């Protein structure tokens, strides 16, 4: 599966049948649903590791796909907000005061991709 929701939940439970089930799901929404199932085991260090896991998944996705990489880079310096009322951590949350960690990771990724593109152009000269 090529969707971030499928890339992301699996590391919550690495090396388990549950992680493989998430990885093989047919749809991103099903992967997200399985990843949120708290009847399954969760990494002990998940709260410390989740931002890095998401950062690596986002980087991998935008590095691998030129079309969406161009869309992300073309957002310029605009603020990116995960506009969801159901997730106060990854998005803005119902109150609009959420942490927006996915938006922050996307903006950092955009900055890095832009730097990489600039460096690549300089090296070709």
**Proportion in helices:** 55-70%
Specify the biggest β-sheet: none
Strand content: under 5%
Span between N and C termini?
37 Å
Radius of gyration: 16 Å
Number of helices: 6
Strand element count: 0
The overall average pLDDT, rounded, is 85
Low-pLDDT regions: none
Shape: globular
Brief write-up:
The protein has six helices and no strands. The chain has 125 residues and is mainly α. It starts with a helix and ends with a helix.
Walk me through this protein's architecture.
There is one protein chain. 21% of the residues are buried. By secondary structure, the protein is mainly alpha-helical. The radius of gyration is 16 Å and the shape is globular. 56% of the residues lie in helices and 0% in strands. The protein has helices at residues 4-7, 17-23, 28-35, 46-64, 66-73, 101-124. The longest helix is centred in the C-terminal third of the chain and has 24 residues, at 101-124.
């Amino acid at each position: 599966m090529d969707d971030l929701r499928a890339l992301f939940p699996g590391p919550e439970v690495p090396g388990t049948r549950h992680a493989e089930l998430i990885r093989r799901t047919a749809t991103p929404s099903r992967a997200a649903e399985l990843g949120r199932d708290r009847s399954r085991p969760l990494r002990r260090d998940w709260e410390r590791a989740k931002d890095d896991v998401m950062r690596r998944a986002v980087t991998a996705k935008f590095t691998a796909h030129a079309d969406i990489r161009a869309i992300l880079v073309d957002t310029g310096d605009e603020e990116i907000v995960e506009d969801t009322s159901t997730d106060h951590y990854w998005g803005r949350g119902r109150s609009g005061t959420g942490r927006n960690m996915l938006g922050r990771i996307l903006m950092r990724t955009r900055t890095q991709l832009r730097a990489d593109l600039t460096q690549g152009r300089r090296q070709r000269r």
